[in-house]
Design brief:
about 180 residues
Length: about 180
């Protein structure tokens, strides 16, 4: 990538992060391009779809979640490690208004750019879930796909009730009671 194209790419990501944080995942792309000092065509050359832009924005958070899962793989208590990682997923999905919904949709749309975020998270979570199962702490019929959908649903529900700051934790605790062996 040429230096000017790389600068445009980075400015678009910076402005998209700010717009998604302030307005949610449905922030107007035209506004993001304008704030980055480029035309909408430049935005679409770098990020052909909204999902591609969301994917670009969330690569840093994805790396952090993957690093956290690797560290938790060595934890003494595999069930607690899984719970900690699921809490991190709920926090991530709730970071931007509309992200949880987009992530839920991406899990069913394998062509979505956001599935590039979902796939490595699914693999990381599956390793943690397998350890918790092997320790006899999680039921055999629990899948990482279901747990990820539940974490997104919890984040989506919490997004609808921002005044209840404990809602996500309560719902996750309820969910976790249901998966224990």
């Amino acid at each position: 990538m040429r230096a000017d194209a790389r600068r445009n790419h980075e400015r678009l990501l910076v402005e998209a992060r700010a717009a998604f944080a302030g307005q949610g995942a449905d922030a107007p792309l035209e506004e993001i391009a304008r704030r980055a000092g480029v035309g909408i065509g430049t935005l679409y050359r770098h990020f052909p779809t909204r999902a591609d832009l969301l994917n670009g924005v969330f690569q840093e958070a994805l790396a952090e979640l993957l690093d956290r899962s690797h560290a938790l793989t060595e934890a003494d208590d595999p069930c607690r490690a899984l719970v900690e990682w699921l809490r991190a997923l709920v926090a991530h999905a709730g970071e931007y208004r509309g992200l949880a919904h987009a992530l839920m949709s991406a899990s069913y749309d394998r062509s979505s750019a956001l599935s590039r975020c979902s796939d490595p998270l699914r693999a990381a979570g599956d390793r943690l879930l397998a350890r918790a199962r092997e320790a006899g702490r999680v039921r055999a019929d629990v899948s990482i796909g279901d747990l990820m959908q539940l974490t997104n649903a919890i984040a989506l529900t919490a997004e609808q009730c921002p005044e209840d700051t404990e809602l996500a934790d309560r719902l996750l605790a309820l969910t976790l009671r249901g998966i224990k062996a």
